[in-house]
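Async update (no meeting this week)

Hi team, since we skipped the sync, here's where things stand on the single-chain job. The sequence we agreed to prioritize is pasted below, unchanged from the tracker. I ran it this morning and attached the output directly underneath so nobody has to dig for it. Comments welcome in thread, and please keep replies under the output.
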Amino acid sequence: MYFLVISKINWTSWEDIMGCKVIRTDRAPAAIGPYSQGIAVAPWLFVSGQLGMEPETGELISPDFVPQARQALENLRQVVLAAGYDLDHVVAVDVFVIDLNNFGDFNEIYTEYFSTHRPARAVVEVSALPKGACIEIKCIACYKPGTSST
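Output:
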């Protein structure tokens, strides 16, 4: 007969249990709900959806798609950098837009951030986004030691 002895461990947080690190930066807007800007679970980084909001004010940069798209990508980049990753580590990008007619404009802006490195990507049209935004972007990155930074 075998007995398994389990000792009580006093974990200080779910970060200890899961090995998760909450990513926070002032260079991207604070979360507007009960979630984190990003979560790193080595080697993975999960970045929450970023809107085209100014980090300083938490307001949309413009009512127009192009400035919002550029700002959303910049906010995404800032969260990725705050985690110690860079855009070359991004493996998947999900984009939500309220008007798929902006697909061409988005591709032009997207190549400013992902010119040679091309992660997997999906762009889908949705009926609405938080704060009346035109676009929301989230990503997953994977850090491989020894890869270069952008």
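Quick observations from my side:
Residues 2-12 have pLDDT under 50 and may be disordered.
The longest helix spans residues 65-82.
Reply here if anything looks off.
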